[in-house]
Automatic annotation (TrEMBL):
It is a multi-pass membrane protein. It comes from Horornis vulcanius. GO terms for cellular component: bicellular tight junction; plasma membrane. The chain crosses the membrane at residues 86-105. PANTHER family: CLAUDIN. This is CLD23 protein. One of its GO terms (molecular function) is structural molecule activity.
Length: 117
């Protein structure tokens, strides 16, 4: 007989890809923080620092250049190094969780089989 999938499982399977997409966006985003009023730089220059890249933008002309050299030691800071490890790890764990959840929903039964569990 066909069984209905519980609402909680359906909601979980919908929210998990949403979380995966948001984590991917956060991992690849070039602007985790913005730094302005940097000494020896024009007043309208804003530095956008992500966990993989640094971009420099002039607000007056909206010229944006990415791949800038890390002159301020941003990538050596501990929080950035930790984020460089944790964000891709989070993507992998979320993807594994999605696969396991999808398999769990596919194999779900109201009474557990104790030999399998």
């Amino acid at each position: 007989p066909s069984m209905r999938t519980p609402t909680e499982m359906i909601v979980g399977l919908v929210l998990c890809p949403c979380g995966l997409l948001l984590t991917l966006t956060g991992t690849l985003a070039p602007s985790w923080r913005q730094v302005s009023l940097v000494p020896d730089q024009p007043m309208d220059v804003v530095w956008e620092q992500g966990i993989w890249d640094i971009c420099r933008e002039r607000q007056s002309t909206h010229d944006r250049l990415c791949g800038q050299a890390d002159e301020m030691g941003y990538f050596e800071q501990v929080p950035v190094r930790v984020a460089q490890g944790l964000m891709p790890s989070s993507l992998v764990v979320t993807l594994v969780g999605l696969v396991v959840a999808a398999l769990g929903v596919r194999c779900w039964q109201p009474e557990p089989r104790h030999l399998v569990a």
